[in-house]
Amino acid sequence: MNRYLPIRRVYAREVLDSRGNPTVETEITVGEGIIGRDGITGRAIVPSGASTGKFEAVELRDKENRYWGLGVQKAVNHINRVLAEEILGENALNQCRIDRILKEADATENKSNMGANALLGISLAVAKAAAKAMKLPLYQYLGGTYTTQMPVPMMNVLNGGRHADNTVDFQEFMIMPTGAETFKEGLRMCAEVYQKLKQQLKVRGLSTGVGDEGGFAPNLANAKDIFLILNESVEQSGYQIGKDICYAMDAAASELYDSKRKQYYFPGESKAMQKEIYRTTDEMTAYYKELTKEFPIVSIEDALDEEDWQGWKMLTDELGKNIQLVGDDLFVTNSERLKKGIELNSANAILIKVNQIGTLTEAMDAVQTAQKAGYRAVISHRSGESEDTFIADLAVACSAGQIKAGAPCRAERTAKYNRLLQIEDELKQEARYRNPFAEESLKKS
Q1: DSSP H/E element including 426
Q2: Where are the alpha helices (DSSP H) in 262-410?
Q3: For residue 240, which of 292, 170, 189, 301 has the smallest C-alpha distance?
Q4: Contact 172/159 with Cβ under 8 angstroms?
Q5: End-to-end distance of the chain based on CA atoms, in angstroms?
Q6: Which ranges in 3-162 belong to alpha helices (H)?
Q7: CB half-sphere exposure, 35, CA atoms < 13 A
Q8: Rounded distance, CA 163 to CA 157, Å?
């Protein structure tokens, strides 16, 4: 690095996320001069998941009486008393070195010593401070001058599973404005369908309360019933199904997997049918195949259990030429697990959640590993979010082309969409928006 931008101050505090649970906020002040007057500060708030993969980096919680054991004072103290000493005076412009120092200070593979939430708070705040000091928008600082690709929203409109207290077994049902010409237009299309869906649920006497990510959370029997309502909502909004709007879903199958029976249990569907509904891996594949034939589903996330590598390979062989199969719990933003998936031809896309891996460098490495192998990358929020808009800039910086940020509801979700509107305005005519499934086929075996 030719320019030296020293880290002058590191400070963390415990704040609240969108579910009312504690999380870590970190401040990094960089630059010469008097701190608070000449120094430049970047702030980052760490997200937190509800449906988490067993191979994710460890989110450190206090497990004491306060906040019912969910406090993060240990992680905060690790930042203020241990990690700060490791990086004070380091060059904030050398993100890779900062992240390596953090990993070495933790000295565990899964960040269980210092806590992934402690490491990530510093990592993201350093990037923000450096971008601000260089007087560059964050997406350009991270991605360079040629970052102009706006992401297509993979917008959650109906919640189930761990994200809602209802009978819907699959975790997320999403709409994608693949027919839009700009991000602004795509966001409007999604918001209109979302509001029409609310009307459709009211007409049916169903709940219009929302889940963790802002999607509606009615009691419905199965996936087909949900997609049929979505069809009505899209058509009544004046859009063509499969052309203007396509569908995506997150099965979160690891949450349904019964390891003793080696089958997937559907509690909501069982209740509706008044009999126990289990599906084998082959039956899950057949179910997805049936759904994709009937509805314009372009992407399925976590279709099978996080350890069923052979099942994922069979699913990819069966559906991967036509459907985006996204590994979330399967890959957990981990380049090594992703490389295994690439070798086995399991899935053809990765979900990127920065808190799954613990540092910005590792998250970006996972994106690059995926893209070099012909896999797609989808930048994603978590169910426990905040007003921090880092992932909006990250999606543009990585030219990912797709983003999951929740429903057009709840400020912690709309903040990301509003930030993307700002970025599109900044890029003006150079902003690019395209259907990620239109111009190229998915990775073939």
Answers
A1: helix 411-427
A2: 267-273, 281-294, 309-319, 335-344, 354-357, 360-372, 390-397
A3: 189
A4: yes
A5: 41
A6: 73-77, 84-87, 95-106, 116-133, 138-143
A7: 12
A8: 12
Q: If you average pLDDT over residues 345-374, what whole number do you get?
A: 97
β-bridge pairing 172-176 and 155-159: antiparallel
Structure tokens at 74: 């240990």
In Å, what is the CA distance from 436 to each residue of 173, 194, 324, 368?
Answer: 18, 22, 10, 17
Percent of the chain with pLDDT over 70: 95
pLDDT-based confidence at 444, cuts 50/70/90? Answer: very low
Instruction: Please choose, from the candidates 145, 183, 143, the residue with its C-alpha nearest in 3D space to the C-alpha of residue 397.
Output: 143
Amino acid at 2: N
Alpha helices in 107-245 (DSSP H): 116-133, 138-143, 183-203, 223-236
Catalytic residue of the set 192, 213, 255, 306: 213
* Cβ count within 10 A of residue 358: 31
Q: How far apart are CA 373 and CA 340, in angstroms?
A: 12
Q: For the whole model, what pTM was predicted? A: 0.95
pLDDT digits (tens, 9 = 90+) for 108-129: 999 999 999 999 999 999 999 9
Amino acid symbol at 9: R
Mark whether 353 is an active-site residue: yes
Residue 428: active-site member: no
CB 30 within 8 A of CB 5: yes
* Residue 328 pLDDT greater than 80, yes or no: yes
Sort 89 into a burial class: Cβ within 10 Å, 0-12 / 13-18 / 19+. exposed
Task: Give backbone dihedrals phi and psi of 41, rounded to 5 degrees, phi first.
Answer: -115, 135
Q: Are the CB atoms for 403 and 349 separated by under 8 Å?
A: no
CA separation, residue 265 to residues 115, 251, 262, 302 (Å): 33, 12, 10, 15
Catalytic residue among 111, 313, 353, 416: 353
Q: Does residue 395 surpass a pLDDT of 70? A: yes
Q: How many helices (H) and strands (E) does the chain have?
A: 15, 15
Which amino acid is located at 436 in the chain?
P
Pairwise CA distance, residues 68 & 126, whole Å: 31
State the average pLDDT for the chain. 94
Cβ atoms of 150 and 431 within 8 Å: the answer is yes
Pick from 2-6, 68-72, 415-419: least confident: 2-6
Task: List the 155-159 sheet strands across, edge first.
Answer: 152-153, 402-404, 376-380, 349-352, 324-327, 297-301, 246-250, 172-176, 155-159
